[in-house]
Design brief:
This protein is mainly beta. It contains 5 helices and 42 strands. Helix content is 11%, strand content 49%. It has a 33-stranded antiparallel β-sheet, covered by helices on one side. It starts with a helix and ends in a 9-residue tail after the last helix. The N terminus and C terminus are likely disordered.
């Protein structure tokens, strides 16, 4: 029953919060989920993330960004940069061949000379820097409004966050993920719609460049009320619930979500968040170094203190550095070390070549590939694992110094794993037309068949063990919010689940008592027993 309740719980997660420090660059981040509208198995939600290293000013003020603020930008070298979350990480899409960094540098310098006098010597020195530094190239291109003209039908590629492509359309751009999901952007790079493989769609409605509403294909809708400067003042659901926001200048200083959770924020003169004040009076405090603006200390709402110290290799300070993290543990201070080594690519972009962590004396060194930033070698205190990939960046083999191995094969069309072989045997996977896992079976004679409804939810699961000649068939029914309300097993019984007004599980009843719960639990455990030993994530 414990496992079964956990399975149900994962389908109805409440609003949540995430916070931490990026040890690579000293960035403080924190995420809030302000709005969540359930229905049809797909929640329409608004989350926002603050990044202290962000210099952008988005819908929620300095440093804040949201998924719907994801922005596409065409670079001068014919690559495309997608700014995730508006103020978050960047995903770079490039052609199959090398980008023409030299041509981009020439265009940038020409644009500079059209506005200012630039000597030949300055132009020569700057050109060399632009060719060898993709970030600098992009910064200058943005400043002087230099963009490449990407022809309709051109396809660009990225594997830094899974296999993705960006295609130039007649109007705008299309970003496609390997799982079938895609996003559309207008010519200005604004996100206009999101589509998943099950037919669920989400549309962003703008007026005069300002977001007015977000609507999905299931009829759920959010309305945005803005201040005069474009920052969000209020978000209202069709049910009348709302989240509200207050600002001091460009900084968000107060927010209230649809569950009436109130948060207050303070900042320093550089827009670095210095505290979060909760409705019960508790506080989280963040301190930064003066020179680099890296996080130096965090005191959480429980009073626990974490210190951060940043050091580097004096011979190569910009490309080899480490962070020391100190916490109290068992009445004494414990310091762990996180080391990073950066290398440039031929086009001037950079990637993390090596990381080395020392946590409580346990050392882990990871070396990454140049093309896709995938790990090629991991050394855990002498236990070495190596990785091999195909030309698309998909993992094909994993080998450990102990003799354990993992071989992966992929469906040629959808690029999903269709066979895994390891020391214990093999596991095969089949998918339906939408890319959902439809069947899994292994060399031990275990198999699971999954059938989905039109909204991509599991409607039937058949669990079979060939050697024991045992078969279980489970059927699932969902309510209007997409939450499971009935799970039935032939010749055993049914489990009925009810929810309160907040969508939390209120009661679980079974006509067959604990026997039914045990059968359901065992069926899901069998599914996991097939998938987990394969050592892969199937993105079910």
């Amino acid at each position: 029953m414990k496992f079964f309740k956990y399975f149900l719980f994962t389908l109805v997660l409440p609003l949540s919060l995430e916070a931490g420090v990026n040890l690579k660059n000293g960035n403080f981040y924190i995420t809030y989920f302000d709005v969540l509208v359930p229905g049809g198995g797909k929640n329409l939600e608004i989350s926002r993330t603050y990044n202290s290293k962000s210099t952008s000013k988005g819908w929620f003020g300095f440093g804040w960004g949201s998924d719907f603020e994801t922005k596409l930008e065409v670079a001068a070298d014919s690559s495309v940069i997608i700014h995730e979350n508006g103020s978050g990480a960047e995903t770079r899409f490039v052609p199959k061949g090398p980008v023409n960094a030299a041509e981009a540098a020439s265009k940038i310098i020409a644009a500079m000379r059209s506005k200012n006098k630039v000597s030949d010597e300055v132009a020569k020195n700057l050109s060399e820097k632009l060719i060898n530094d993709a970030e600098l190239r992009q910064a200058y291109a943005k400043k002087f409004d230099v963009k490449a003209d990407i022809a309709q039908g051109t396809k660009l590629f990225s594997s830094s966050r899974g296999l993705q492509t960006v295609t130039r359309l007649n109007r705008g751009f299309k970003r496609r993920y390997n799982d079938g999901k895609y996003e559309l952007f207008d010519d200005d790079g604004n996100l206009t719609s999101i589509h998943d493989r099950h037919g669920y769609k989400l549309f962003l409605n703008y007026k005069n460049g300002k977001l007015k509403s977000i609507k999905d294909s299931m009829g759920k809708q959010l309305f945005f009320e803005l201040y005069a400067d474009g920052k969000v003042k209020k978000i209202t659901t069709t049910g009348g619930k709302s989240s509200t926001y207050k600002y001091d200048g460009g900084d968000l200083v107060e927010s209230k979500d649809i569950a009436d959770n109130l948060y207050k924020f303070t900042y320093d003169s550089n827009h670095n968040m210095t505290s979060v004040i909760y409705s019960d009076g508790a506080k989280m405090e963040i301190t930064y170094t003066k020179r680099t603006q890296f996080v130096s200390q965090i005191i959480n709402r429980s009073g626990e203190e974490t210190k951060y110290k940043y050091e580097n290799n004096s011979k190569n300070p910009n490309f080899h550095y480490w962070t020391l993290v100190t916490k109290q543990s068992g009445g004494r201070e414990v310091t762990n070390r996180y080391e990073y080594e950066i290398k440039p690519r031929p086009d001037g972009s950079q990637y993390t070549y090596r990381t080395l962590t020392n946590i409580n004396g346990f050392k882990t060194e990871t070396v990454y590939s140049e093309c896709c930033s995938n790990p090629v070698k991991i050394d855990r205190n002498g236990d070495i694992t190596t990785f091999a990939y195909d030309e698309s960046g998909l993992l094909t083999r994993k080998t450990n110094s102990s003799g354990k191995f993992l071989k992966l094969e992929y469906d040629k069309k959808i690029k999903k794993i269709n066979k895994v072989t390891n020391n214990d045997g093999w596991t095969k996977f089949e998918y339906d037309k939408k890319g959902n896992l439809a069947k899994a079976r292994n060399s031990e004679g275990k198999s699971v068949l999954l059938i989905y409804d039109l909204k991509g939810r599991i409607s039937k699961m058949i669990d079979y063990h060939k050697k024991k000649d045992k078969k279980r068939a489970l059927t699932f029914k969902y309510n209007a919010a997409g939450k499971p309300v009935e799970i039935a097993m032939s010749n055993i019984g049914k489990i009925r689940v009810s929810y309160d007004s907040y969508g939390e599980i209120k009661e679980v009843k079974s006509s067959a008592g604990s026997k039914m719960a045990v059968q359901v639990t065992n069926a899901f455990k069998n599914l996991l027993s097939i998938v987990r030993p394969a050592g892969v994530n199937l993105n079910m």
